[in-house]
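Lab notebook: predicted structure, single chain.

Context: the supervisor wants predicted structures on file for every construct in the current expression panel, including those that have not yet been purified. This is the next one on the list. No modifications to the sequence; it matches the entry in the shared construct table.
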Amino acid sequence: MAFVLLSVGELGGATVAAKTAGRFARRLPQAGALIATAAMVTYGLQIGSHQADLTLLAMTAPVVLIGFRLGMVSGPLADLSLARVPHEDAGSASGLFNTAIRLGIALGTALTAVVFFAITGGSPDGAVNRDAFVTVLWWVGGLLALSALLRPALARQRITQSSMAHDQGSMAQDICDAQHQLHEAHAELAALCQTLPWSVEPHEGWARPRAHWHPTERPATDGWTQEQQDAVAALRARAVELSLAVSAHPFWGTVERGDVVAARMTLKQLRQEPTAEVA
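Prediction complete. Output recorded below exactly as produced.
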């Protein structure tokens, strides 16, 4: 039953990681290590204080949290480890990553077994085995806490606006200007569409009653005028033109392959002030 609780926690952790990895991928392993450390400490205190009276219900929370940590770390760990690998080396890197994971599991299992049997000496006594298990929990919890403390010290991939604009000439300025104009084109198109009728073509509309499985209502409309259609088409063409100018800019040829995605996200988040016109 304990393994079922562990699996439930792992499923929950994987779900949380999948929903938050886009924003917090680099913090998930550290958060998972801290959660597991707290769970290990709680579990060890429970075993030490309740002795033989510890029930499955009492150990539910720490066991689920330990599983939660496993699911929270496993997904982002692969993405973080392989993010900078060139495409042509992806297969080899994936195999090496999986091998390292399995070696780590095997090594961790062996070390915890060494600690456990060094304390018990092979004794079948329940009290001795319980004390050895608690000691193993302290060792594992300490290692998890250490990994959480060392995590911020690891090298991070950072691409700032200054590093993107390593060519101080017109090339970096051109791509920033194009991205800024692309933001403006999208905003203008969205604002225009908010003012337009709901249908491009003339439509008599409809009204479905509330008892309908999908109640909706649309008023009759004459559709878009030719002027409105031309305005939308012009803005969409402008957005496509600017998108091509950004995505096909020579700047991307100067960025290392493993940094392209991060550089693109940095550029998309720029909120550059409009360039002042020179009189």
